[in-house]
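User: Hi! I'm working on a homework problem where we have to compare a predicted structure to a textbook description. Could you give me the structure for the chain below?
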Amino acid sequence: MRALVVERYGDEAGVRATEVPQPQVGANDVLVRIHAASVNPLDLKIRDGEFKAILPYRVPFILGNDLAGTVIRAGAAVTRFAVGDEVYARPDKGRIGTFAELIAVHQDDVALKPISLTMEEAASLPLVALTSWQALVERAHVQPGHKVLIHAGSGGVGTIAVQLAKHLGALVATTTSTANVGLLKNLGADVVVDYEKQAFETVLHDYDVVLDPLGGENLDKSLEVLRPGGKAIGIAGPPDAAFARELGASPVLRAAMAALSFRTRRRARRRHVTYEFLFMRASGDQLREISALVDAGRIRPVVDRVFPFESGPEALDYVGKGHAKAGKVVLTMP
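Assistant: Happy to help. Predicted structure tokens:
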């Protein structure tokens, strides 16, 4: 089968389309013929070797973390799916490889795709929708009346998180560029801060939750807009010791991650708020919840551009250089 393979870490030239063996299908796996897959910043970080310490994929490996497609085989122990089902998924972090014609995925990580969406639209959702759900529902327990700030509202995570937070009953603020102010208002944001004209930390105050996909100075400033007891959730880092424990990391790696986030956690404590790092996990159960919201019209995907599979390296470059105007970039399979 055809696949987009990372042959060496560190640069664009290390990725190419090539023939690879078809995946083996375990008893609890479904074999999915992939119709579409989306490109995430995570793919670029994996390609460039930024996550080798925590996600040590051995080259060569197939890239890709989102998919929508059709089940063409079900393992002997599969009970939730049958041949012909249209599904979508974010495979477990140890079994990535959606930039391919086929993939074997554990049935627990798969859900029927929303019936109201095309394959391209469905493929844009799993990673960003699961990230939004795990941040706002699991970690932050957002309730009606909470004030939630979502940075980079026009990005892949942002476009979904704004809609989910609004569905949960929050007052939603977001940051974006001038060109996307209208889009974010249409997605339900109550307050849109145009970062080209205003500094968000000067106009926003007493927020319960901040979801930050940017990190660095943006995360530091985000701590300033939280009320005492508020929570900042970072998906760009720095990682913390709790994440290292989830990974089952060695004591040395746990200590290193704790050191990376020490400054941020100390700043948070001084302001009587908390900081947590989130690296989303696969979950078919949560995708079923998300499908229901999509088909009820509560959440709609935003797709910036669709590339054919043969243009996979170009699509990665398009995302990596920040050319996407809003939402996700999707690959369609041959």
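For your comparison, note the following. The longest strand covers residues 29-39. The mean pLDDT is 95. Good luck with the assignment!
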